[in-house]
Amino acid sequence: MNNIIWLILDSCRYDNFIEAKTPHFDRIGDTQKRYAYASWTAPSHYVFLMGLLPHQAPRGVLAAHVYREEYHRWQQRIGKDTGIDPDNFLPSMNIVNFLNQTGYRTIARVSLPVLNPETGLSRYFNDYCLLDTQNGFSEIIAEIKFLPDQPTFYFLNIGETHYPYMLDDPGLPHISGVHGVLKNIRGTEGKMDTGSSSMNASLFTTAQLQKLKAQQLKAIEYCDELFGELIKKCPPESYVIITSDHGELFGEEGRFGHGPVVHPKVFEVPLIEGPLDHQIF
Asked: How many structural domains compose the chain?
């Protein structure tokens, strides 16, 4: 069975990924334009753990066909003669639970607090940890280890591509998502903190929005460099998935961020997947 590395670049929009220079990501395969099932982190990750990757939004095709094709792909990802076994996959409909029963060691490292271990996302993992920092991809790579006698499933959510995109700029506003809103809902004088996706792009100047978009591109390239270090640690029998949970807006139609926002750029995400072939490195 293959080791599986599933890398999620949080908030990474498709067109920024395409524009970025990503020689190490590109070695895994061609970048596909896909569409996230949800516009923000938490629901997208619940869908991921159902074993479903971002879809192609095909025309004239029933949803059942899309799901069927996606589950068939797990045969290639796992590297077995058979893929999803309904008897082991149902009723939990959780890919981690299924992989545990198949013989995998299952490990998750996540960067966003909305994915913390107290949520249901952590339920079936052997090892699930919220990082101390949003920009912890290098620390994740340092601790990754593969076993010679047991395949490993690594599920990695990295926050470098999420606002503020590795920027340490005191001039930028602090923007909270659901987790931050709940932490501060009983803040000073009872004023509720404002969630990131409900904030209007007028909080930023045009120059700031351009800077933020350009900075996400730089963050993607930074992650690509680190990914080059990760693949050096991966055994030949490894299968890699690289995608995003949702996109991001940088002022389009007066909007910034993601979440309760309906716009194509929020749903357009990259997908690269394939077996790791060390002969090409």
From this structure: 1
Q: Which domain holds residue 275?
A: 3-280
Q: What are phi and psi of 275, to 5 degrees?
A: -75, 145
- Alpha-carbon distance of 237 to 255, in angstroms, equals 43
Classify residue 31 by its DSSP letter. P
Residue 57 DSSP SS3: coil
List pLDDT tens digits, range 175-207. 777 776 667 766 644 444 444 444 444 578 888
**For residues 1-7, average pLDDT:** 96
Q: Tokens in use for 22?
A: 């990503």
Q: 162: Cβ–Cβ under 8 A, 6 or more apart, which residues?
A: 10, 11, 111, 112, 134
How many CB atoms lie under 10 A from the CB of residue 154?
23
Measured CA angle at 277 (ends 271, 278), to 5 deg: 125
Calpha distance 72→161 (Å, rounded):
30
* Tens of pLDDT, residues 103-139: 999 999 999 999 999 999 999 999 999 999 999 999 9
Output the pTM of the full model: 0.90
Quote the tokens at residue 121. 């996302």
Q: Identify which of 7, 25, 32, 22 has the alpha carbon closest to the alpha carbon of residue 268.
A: 32
Query: Residue 172: which pLDDT band, with cuts at 50, 70 and 90?
Result: confident
Are 20 and 224 in contact by the 8 Å Cβ rule? The answer is: yes
- pLDDT, position 195: 43
Query: Residue 257: beta bridge partners?
Result: 249
pLDDT at 197: 41
Nearest to 137 by CA among 216, 223, 221, 247: 223
Q: Which two tokens stand for residue 229?
A: 């270090």
Q: How far apart are CA 46 and CA 94, in angstroms?
A: 9
Q: Residue 168 sits in a domain of what CATH number?
A: 3.40.720.10
pLDDT attached to residue 174: 73
